[in-house]
Structures are given as structure tokens and as C-alpha cells.
Amino acid sequence: MRIFLKLLILLFCLKGQVMAQNLPTIALLATGGTIAGSGVNASSGSYKSGELSIKELLKAIPSLNKLARIQGEQISNIGSQDMNEEVWFKLAKRTQELLDDSRIQGVVITHGTDTLEESAYFLNLVLHSTKPVVLVGAMRNASSLSADGALNLHNALSVAANEKSANKGVLVVMDDNIFSAREVVKTHTTHTSTFKALNSGAIGSVYYGKTRYYMQPLRKHTMKSEFFLSQLKTPLPKVDIIYTHAGMTPDLFQASLNSHAKGVVIAGVGNGNVSAGFLKAMQEASKMGVLIVRSSRVGSGGVTSGEIDDKAYGFITSDNLNPQKARVLLQLALTKTNDKAKIQEMFEEY
Length: 350
What we know:
This protein is of the alpha/beta class. It is 32% helix and 19% strand. Helix 4 packs parallel to helix 9 (323-333). It is globular, with a radius of gyration of 22 Å.
């Protein structure tokens, strides 16, 4: 009887080992954010980002080991309001190394939500792989009532481990939705459903790990991108964003030019519009070789040559990229060329 029990235990252990060996290997890179945040009071909104390490996150959610063999690394531990180019390059280089490793099936990146969309779009333009790369965060810190980070991370790992997630560029998983990096945007300061794709909608959904896709990103990304990490260096060309409003004067715009900005993204009113005085300052800067991109503060919709003749003024329109993503693309475009026509083509392709 004892021999029989020992054999059963041995068979059970062997079965578990075989199952573990059949699981995909997913690299989990942590950068900090609310998902790694901690507060003193579970019923208070006050907390500090980036308090928990990657080891602590994984220890708190042991069920993740049933989804994949997880290889965890800490890239940074900051609130994403402090995200910068140095961390971007560190994160991108390590992600690319992991994607080039045949043993790794995909990469999941935990990130604060404030600048998650910018980091996702940057990675979407500079990484070269067909393997899934998924960014994920949380709107409630790990010690909060109804914290959303654990399920978001569970879903992100499920998406990264799913073969259907390949060739879709960088993805963002939040609140049961799967978004493309180009389209996703944070729309609410506190709601767990803050991330939306206002111009196109989510490309899929993931419910307790069950992944479904309905659409495919069509703009250039990852493998078709002309931007290569090996050809980039920090700092990237300086590009500022100027937010316009009623009664706007060119003062802030002039300050940007004085600080040697190579390009300026204008978050214009409505269809990227600006006041007459501001328009004149933009035209003068464009003549001096500063790249001017017209975007909009509205939040959705594309910027078109309506009241402003962009060709006549030498401006570039952002298509439907919001100002923060238009800045990322312009920074990378300026590493390739200063030709306005070519950069306009990039905004229509990426």
C-alpha cells in the first residue's frame, strides 16, 4: 500500500513537471507604477508608486505560475510621471534582447498608467520582433480595496502566452481589454476603465485569461518600422508640446524655440487651430527649419488642412495621433530626416 501511494505521488509530481515544461516562458519586466504601489490605508486613495519589487508582485499572485514560466526582472521602480528617455532605452534594449532569445515566447511590462501610452508607442516603433509585447498597469495600488493589478497582470500574461497575439505590435492590456499601442489613451484620472481607443476601439478582449481578437492593427509597427535601436542614442531630438487655449500668445512657443527645440507639437483647439498671432509665429519658426506638427487637444479625430493650409505654411499634420504620441513619432522621425514631406509620410504610415 505504501509503495502504491509513493508511486501515485511520484506520478503526480512527474505530471506537474511535464505540465510546467509545456508552459510558455514569458519575461516579466517591471518599471514601477501603481501596480507596484502600496498605501497605509486600504480604503484611501493615497499611496506611493513603485513600492513593491517584481519578486513581491509575483509572490503575491502565485497562480501566475500556472499560466507560464515567468522570468522576472526589475528595470526601474518609479511612478510613470518620472518616465524618461534613459529608462525607455534601458527597457527597449532589454526587451529586444529577450525577444531575440528563442526560449522566450513573449514579454510583459508592468508600467504606471500616466505615461503608459507613450512608452507603449515608443516600443511599438523601435522593437523588431513578431513576438507579443504587452504593457499592463493598474489604477488601484496593490494594498487597495478591489485592487485591479492582479487580474490585469493575469490577463496580460495570458495575452502574451497566446499564439494569436503575435504580429500585432506592442499591446496594452487593461480592464479586460486589449489595445494596440498606437490607439490606446488614458481618458480618466481614477476609473479602472480609463484606457480607451477613442478612434478605433479595442482590438480584442481578455476575460480571466480567455483571449479573443476582433481587429488587427494596420499601421506600421515593430518588424516594418524603419527605426532601429542600434541606430538611436540619447538624448533624442528635443521636441516640445505647446497646449493652446483662448487668448493664446506665442510666449511659450518662443520659449521652446529659445531652448533649441528641433520640433514642436501644437496641441491646437478643435481641428488643430491656433490664433492669428500664434499662427504667424509658427510660420516664422517653420521657415527657420523648426518642424511644426499640428495635433489637437480634443482627444479624438484626425487633424486635417481645414482653416490652415499646412503645405503653404510648411506644417505637418498628426493624423489622429494625440500630442504626446505625435511627439514620440516626431522625435524618432528627426533621427532620420528633416524633410517635411518625408516626415508627413511617416505620420500617415505609423
